[in-house]
Amino acid sequence: MSLDDARTWPCAANTCHRDLRDHELAGEQCLCSPCVSAIRTWMHEIPLQMIVLGGSRQRETTGTVGGRGGTRTPPLPGRDDVLNLVGPAAWTTVPDPHGDSEGPTPIVGTLGDWMRIICEERRWDGPDETTPEALALWLAAPRRLDWACRRPWAGDMRDELYSLMRTIRGITRLRPQRRPIPQPCPRCDSLTLTETDHEQYIDCSTCDSLFTRSDLALGAVATAARITADQLDVA
Description:
The protein is mainly alpha-helical. The protein contains eight helices and four strands.
């Protein structure tokens, strides 16, 4: 298939609706740049989320004290959904003939699986520690993430990490905040720029472009110069 035939090739992630742009196709990316940026943001967010998860271990108790209600099975010493997420993970496939394994995959299990795939294919060394924080920051490193986004499994990685972050945020109720930027988009001139906590880029919801703060500073200078030139022409 020629590059011309692939001009509208979609991003490999099922959870993304964008098409790959020319520069992304030329760089052999399987994921669009916004998806790559999102993964990097999620990985930098996980250490902060771990602090909240650590404080969410205890089970909330309601009702009166001294009642005789309950079950024959003693309750877990904490919230099972949180304990599943922050607990250890098996490094090999665990048989489950009775189908009684429940709950989300631990964070170290999800991140560790992708770390091992990258290490096996690229022959890189993994992080010194296999904690959620260390694994997340290892995966967020530009050299590793930029390489991973060009692999045929990049879409599966993005979808799985997206699901993991939805689970984490569903427990902590801690979500990055989006704020409008009062400046025209340097590309399409619309007033739909927004910035999101922890994200490296500011995005335009009209043309899907991504900008750094330096890009916007240059754009502001160009806009001011254009306005001044228009005013001089009118005068």
